[in-house]
Structures are given as structure tokens and as C-alpha cells.
Amino acid sequence: MTRVFHLLAALLLWLGAALPAQASVTITFWSHEFGNSFPHAFITLRGIPDAGGTAVNQDYGFTAKTVSPAILFGSVPGRVEPAKPPYIASSDAQFSVVLTDAQYAQVLALIAGWSEGTGDAHYNLNNRNCIHFVKEAARIAGLSGLDLPQLMKKPRSYLLAVEQANEGRVTAINRPGKEYLPTLPPVDAAPAPTADQPTAPAPVSPLPAPIG
What we know:
Radius of gyration: 20 Å
Shape: globular
Number of helices: 6
Order of helices and strands: HEEEEHEHEHHEH
Oligomer: single chain
Number of strands: 7
């Protein structure tokens, strides 16, 4: 009887290892300080919706289409765009939050709502910049303590303040991208999404130097 029990236990363990693990989409909040570009804040989405569907491994940040003195004097055209891998590696991952599928869908709607062709893409350094974009993503993720007008041009300071205000609700990272990215496991492939499952928008070509 004991031998049968052990065999059954081993079989169940094997089956558990053979089945694909349940996954969720994780949103990570990043900052980039002065260097080869302006300070910037952006997000990454990584994982697979709980309901299944397309795996996502993408980054999104809101920026002015053209870096010029015009950004100092009012609204200019903007866009949501991904960053190049070296840019992410030179940025800092501050914290992450696991999203529900409903929150993931809302983040995708946010991206579409701030993108060219699908929403309002105007950029304003004072009231609609990259930090305002990540602020709305953080709100969707259920975080609080987001209204910090004195920090809306300081990506790192803003995200660290939000992290502190949401201790216990976020996973602190606070590591440079070049150290953090190699620790992430691969995002496994997933079945094709059904019609009622959200899919990530197609990436667009990045600008040479994002601006926050």
C-alpha cells in the first residue's frame, strides 16, 4: 500500500511539472535619468493573461515626437513608443505589480488612448508627459499616492515615492536594467487569443532619444 501511495505521489508531481504553469501579466515601472537623452519613465508588460492568449514582452513609454524647444512652450505631437534594448538596459527597474486580466485590458486601452491614430497623442511637458502616462498605468494597477505634482518631471523620484506609498502592494526591484533583465525567465509561448481576449498593440519604431 505504501509503495502504491509513493507511486501515485510521484505521478502527481510529474503531472504537475508537465503542465504549463498559470501565468499573469506583470507590469514593471522604469525610470531613465540624464545621460544620452532626457529623463524618462516607461512601463514593461511581461507574461501571459490568466485566461490564456498571446504572451507579451513589450515596453511602452509616452514621448514627444520631436525633441525641440517647442516642448517648453506648450503642447506638441506625441506618441507611445518602445525603447531600444540598450536604452532599457541603461534604465532602472523600480517596482512591479501583477495585473489581473481586466487590469491588463485597461492598460492596453490606455496605450491605445495615448497613441497616434487610436487616441489623443498630444504631449505637454507640464501636464501630459511620460510620468503622467505611467501614473495612469499605476492607477489602473490599483496603486495609490499617485498625485505628486512636485515630482511630475522627475521620473525616478516619482516612482520611488509611489513605491514607498504602496509598500506591500508592489514588488520592489530598484535595480539597473543590465542587472535585472538577465534574471527574468523566458516568456513561454501561449495559445492564440480568442476574440474576447486582449492583445498587445503592434510595436512602433522608436525615436533616437525618448524624452520624458
